[in-house]
C-alpha cells in the first residue's frame, strides 16, 4: 500500500509553496516522521516529513510551485528500490542523508573519497547555505567529524572560494542558476529565479509606495549617555541576565514609551476605520540568508531591557537559521530597522504594511556639535521615521521622534518611566 504526501496547510494566508529542496532521493528508504523535503512559502521555510516508513517515489521536482493540498510524493510499503544496493538505499545514520552540492542533490556514498565518504561532504543545513551562496562544496575545508562540512564552515565560506564548474556539472545544472566561477573580463549574464520571499517583499514594497501617503521626518540622537551607561554596567548586566546590553533594547523601550503618548503611530487603517492598539508588538527587521524578515516581539511595552535583548537574540538566531514560524512574523504594530549595522548614515525606510510607521536607525559617527555654547565631539546617530500621512499628522510624527530622542539622550527617564 502506498500513501500520497501532500502540501500541508502552513498558514491562513498562504495558498502555494515552492519545493525548495529534496532531502531524500527518489527510491530512497525513509522512516516514519523522517524529513524528506523542504518547502518554502513567501514567509518561511517548512520541513515535509514522511507519514509512514517505506520507499520514496518523487512526484514534484525542486523549484516547482505547488498549491496547498497538491501531491509532492508518495511512499510505498517496503524497503528501498530493489535495483539499489542496501548501502545505496538507506543512509546508516542521520549524518549520512543526501545533501546539496551546488544545485544538485547527490548521495554522500557517491562522493566517497579519501579516508571516509564524509570528507568534504556538507551536512544538509550546510549544503543549503552553500547552494544559496553559490559556493562549491569541494572548495570548502570541513571541520566536522571525518572532514565533514558543518553549518559553521558553510557560514564562513566565501564565494571567492568557488571553483569553475566542469562541463558535465554545467549541463546537469538548472538554466536558472548561474555557473560557479566566472572568467575575468567576461560579459556573461546570469539569471536566478526569485524566491517566494523576495517576490512577496517586492510586491509589498511597491504596494506600500503606491497605496500610502508616506513621508519621512528626521532627527539626530546624541548616543553618549547610552554608551556611557552601557560601558558602566555591561559586565554586571551580562553576569546577571546572561545577555549583552545592546542598543536595540534601548530603542525598543524608547519607542514603546513614545507610542503611549502618540497612539496614532501605533495604529493602522482598516478600510474606512482607524484601528488603535493598546499594546506594542514591535517588529524588528533582520537580514536573513534568504532576504529581509521581520519577526515580532510581543507586548514589548511590558518587557525589561534584559527581556527585550533575549527576545532579539532568539528571533535573530531563528532568522539566520530559517527557523522562524509564520506566527513569529505576523501581527506587529510598529517596526524598527537598523541600517547602521551595514554602515548606512541616513535613509528613508519603507513602512511595513499594514503598520503606519517605521523607525530607521543608522550608524554612529563622532561629529562636532554645539553643547552649552561650546563645540564638542559626540557620537551622533541620525534617526528617521517614515509614516503614513493618512493617519499620522506632522505634529504627531515629529512629536513622536522628538520624544524618542529625549528618552535616548536621558535614559534615566526611560528606566524610571518619566
Keywords:
3 domains, 10 helices, alpha+beta, 25% strand, Chloramphenicol Acetyltransferase, 418 residues, 4-stranded antiparallel β-sheet
Topology:
Elements: E1 2-6, E2 16-22, E3 29-30, E4 35-40, E5 45-49, E6 54-58, E7 65-67, E8 71-76, H1 86-89, E9 99-101, E10 104-106, H2 124-133, H3 151-156, H4 167-172, H5 196-211, E11 214-222, H6 224-241, H7 247-261, E12 268-270, E13 273-275, E14 282-284, E15 286-288, E16 291-293, E17 296-297, H8 305-320, E18 334-338, E19 357-361, E20 364-371, E21 374-388, H9 394-409, H10 411-416
Parallel strand pairs: 14-18, 18-19
Antiparallel strand pairs: 1-8, 2-4, 2-7, 3-6, 4-5, 6-8, 9-10, 11-21, 12-13, 14-17, 15-16, 19-21, 20-21
Amino acid at each position: 500500500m502506498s500513501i500520497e504526501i501532500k502540501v500541508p496547510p502552513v498558514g491562513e494566508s498562504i495558498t502555494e509553496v515552492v519545493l525548495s529542496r529534496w532531502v531524500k532521493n527518489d527510491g530512497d528508504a525513509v522512516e516514519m516522521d523522517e524529513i524528506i523535503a523542504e518547502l518554502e512559502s513567501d514567509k518561511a521555510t517548512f520541513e515535509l516529513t514522511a507519514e509512514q516508513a517505506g520507499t520514496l517515489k518523487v512526484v514534484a521536482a525542486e523549484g516547482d510551485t505547488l498549491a496547498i493540498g497538491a501531491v509532492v510524493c508518495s511512499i510505498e510499503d517496503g524497503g528501498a528500490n530493489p535495483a539499489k544496493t542496501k548501502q545505496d538505499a538507506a543512509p546508516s545514520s542521520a549524518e549520512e542523508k543526501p545533501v546539496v552540492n551546488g544545485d544538485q542533490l547527490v548521495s554522500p556514498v557517491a562522493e566517497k573519497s579519501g579516508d571516509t565518504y564524509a570528507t568534504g561532504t556538507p551536512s544538509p543545513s550546510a549544503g543549503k547555505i552553500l547552494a544559496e551562496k553559490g559556493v562549491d562544496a569541494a572548495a570548502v575545508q570541513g571541520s566536522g567529524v571525518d572532514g565533514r562540512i558543518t553549518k559553521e564552515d558553510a557560514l564562513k565560506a566565501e564565494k571567492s572560494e568557488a571553483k569553475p564548474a566542469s562541463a558535465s556539472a554545467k549541463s546537469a545544472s538548472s538554466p536558472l542558476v548561474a555557473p560557479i566561477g566566472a572568467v575575468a573580463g567576461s560579459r556573461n549574464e546570469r539569471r536566478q529565479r526569485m524566491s517566494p520571499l523576495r517576490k512577496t517583499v517586492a510586491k509589498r514594497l511597491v504596494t506600500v509606495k503606491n497605496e500610502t501617503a508616506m513621508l519621512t521626518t528626521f532627527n539626530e540622537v546624541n548616543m553618549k549617555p547610552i554608551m556611557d551607561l552601557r560601558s558602566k554596567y555591561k559586565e554586571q548586566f551580562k553576569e546577571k541576565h546572561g545577555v549583552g546590553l545592546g542598543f536595540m533594547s534601548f530603542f525598543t523601550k524608547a519607542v514603546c514609551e513614545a507610542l503611549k503618548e502618540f497612539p496614532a503611530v501605533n495604529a493602522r487603517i482598516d478600510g474606512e476605520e482607524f484601528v488603535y492598539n493598546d499594546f506594542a508588538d514591535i517588529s524588528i527587521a533582520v537580514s536573513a540568508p534568504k532576504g529581509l524578515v521581520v519577526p515580532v516581539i510581543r507586548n514589548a511595552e511590558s518587557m525589561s531591557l534584559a527581556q527585550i535583548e533575549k527576545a532579539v537574540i532568539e528571533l535573530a538566531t531563528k532568522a539566520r537559521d530559517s527557523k522562524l514560524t509564520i506566527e513569529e512574523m505576523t501581527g506587529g504594530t510598529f517596526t524598527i530597522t537598523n541600517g547602521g549595522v551595514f554602515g548606512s548614515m541616513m535613509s528613508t525606510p519603507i513602512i511595513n504594511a499594514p503598520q503606519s510607521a517605521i523607525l530607521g536607525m543608522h550608524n554612529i559617527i563622532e561629529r562636532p556639535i554645539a553643547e552649552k555654547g561650546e563645540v564638542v565631539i559626540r557620537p551622533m546617530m541620525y534617526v528617521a521615521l517614515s509614516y503614513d500621512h493618512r493617519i499620522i499628522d506632522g505634529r504627531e510624527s515629529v512629536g513622536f521622534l522628538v520624544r524618542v530622542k529625549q528618552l535616548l539622550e536621558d535614559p534615566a527617564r526611560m528606566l524610571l518611566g518619566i
